[in-house]
Amino acid sequence: MDPSSSQAAASVAEPDRAWWKEAVAYEIYPRSFFDSTGNGVGDLPGIREKVEYLDDLGVDLVWLTPVYDSPLADFGYDIRDYRSILPEYGTMGDWEGLRDDLHDRDIRLIMDLVVNHTSDEHEWFEKSRREVDPYTDYYVWREGDRASLGNGVDPDDPAAMPNNWESLFGGPAWTYDEVRGEYYLHLFDGKQPDLNWRNPAVRGDVYDLMRWWLDRDVDGFRMDVINFLSKADGLPDGHEGAVVTGSEHFINGPHIHEYLGEMHEEVLSEYDVVTVGEMPGIAVEDAREYVGRDGPLDMVFHFEHMRLDAGEGGDWDFRDWDLAELKETFTRWQRGLAEDGWNALYLNNHDQPRMVSRFGDEDYRVRSATMLATFLHTLRGTPFVYQGEEIGMTNVPFESVGKFIDVETLRYVERMLERDDVENFADIGEAVRYGSRDNARTPMQWSPADNAGFTTGEPWLAVNPNYPEVNVAEARADPDSLWHYYRRVIDLRHDNDVLVYGDYDLLLPDDPELYAYLRTLGEERALVVLNFTDGEPAFELPDGIEYDAADLLLANYEVEGPTRPDRFDLRPYEARVYALE
Ligand code: TEU
């Protein structure tokens, strides 16, 4: 064999194949997907009615965010019982029916595994706060500063707390429990106490509940803040000024690999399933340890591109993002997991602003969304489409503070209104309107009927007023719509191994308007050219990229005339994918 071609030949013959690398995933936020009962809340039978819709779109994998029994302080990320379904959403029978309907159409189903914390209404916590054996050490309890507490100090005074850690939802990460007379740690809301992963009994119970679901034929898990499980020994104070004080002591903590290794050994290795770790605050070097060949998980959701518009002032301080930084970030992750590991790709989810309002342009809603869809599906990694993305749902023009419902948003607004330099909602309204998780959670827009056809009742969160224009029924009826473009780009990925497994090479790194790259798998090459602006920049193929013929695989505009991609002008938010032969 010609030695110069041996490397290419090897990579064609043997990409490290897996069904989940070839899949396109779809995230469902059940509360807002489809209401089958008219009570204003989405439910499992409602999702069942839409399985055919998902099949038509062409997705292969559904991630269902929590549907377990919960008091809904964080809309289900506060679980009261891991083995039952919240009655509002249906029954276990409905869940089984959904699983079977999906499986009948070859769509896999992954569940949300939320085991950094439970609800404070979970039986384990109820028992732990009463020090009932063996639950006494199931959570992270600390005495706090007894001396000062004894002196009539308010337990809500941060100075009396065990350390200075902050909750990701703002405010201290400790709440004093009157029943036990101690503080418990909660990295999220006070109604979400953190489990004590040091306790082997906690870990054993978590592995049991994972097996319980896996034995019911789920195809894997999306794992909520899974790199937060291990807290530093001694719970030392954190550096103030970090985005969240204390985070250096719980992001990728000292025992995390021990715990996830054990979880893999005891549970995951027994099943053919896929796992996606949600991991705020990780760098690509860390990711390789989690999802590399010997790592415990398969894919990772990182947050670096979600911070491109973060200002200096913490989570709610936004600035404009910059294309050079976006390219740098994606390229670093594409390269960093090229040999080992796998990306989970996303541009929005149930916690983030809508993709088109953030990385696209509402004035070019459909064009910019088709461009972003092309981007998402031509990178190396598994694309995750969030419900409504496929019809270009946008952020919401919330009129007043009373319209928000999400706990993270409300906590922020409360804290800000206490400050002297904030007089009223108008002072912070812009940031809240842009960043609130409620943007992502308004009901799915199915039709131009009342309440976007989501419910016949009063929706739990008002629908986006743009539904008469932005909805599934209209999009499906129009062959040129964004929805049909999603079908095409999903098909394109399914039909082209090069888009799944090919190497990624950035072109024109310094171009301020275009994002262009080559994907290469042996003899197969795909060229992707994306205009991230409303201008009309020219693309020129860099020297050294030779080809005999080019075939235009996909574009979001009509392309006329000779299609050789050596040099062409792009229109606003134009996207093209060529095969080079
Ligand atoms: O989110 C984790 C997380 O880091 C969030 O704090 C996120 O960065 C923030 O909401 C962005 O505004 C997961 C879930 O996806 C989220 O819905 C839960 O509230 C959270 O964990 C706690 O379970």
Topology:
Layout: H1 3-13, E1 25-28, H2 44-49, H3 51-57, E2 61-64, E3 68-69, E4 81-85, H4 92-104, E5 108-113, H5 123-129, E6 141-142, H6 146-150, E7 174-177, E8 182-185, H7 200-214, E9 220-223, H8 256-266, E10 274-278, H9 284-291, E11 299-301, H10 323-336, E12 344-345, H11 355-358, H12 365-377, E13 382-386, H13 407-418, H14 425-435, H15 438-441, H16 472-477, H17 482-495, H18 497-501, E14 503-507, E15 514-521, E16 524-531, E17 538-540, E18 550-555, E19 567-569, E20 575-580
Parallel strand pairs: 1-2, 1-13, 2-5, 5-9, 9-10, 10-11, 12-13
Antiparallel strand pairs: 3-4, 6-8, 7-8, 14-15, 15-16, 16-20, 17-19, 18-20
Helix pairs in contact: 12-17, 13-14
Bound molecules: 1-O-alpha-D-glucopyranosyl-D-fructose (TEU).
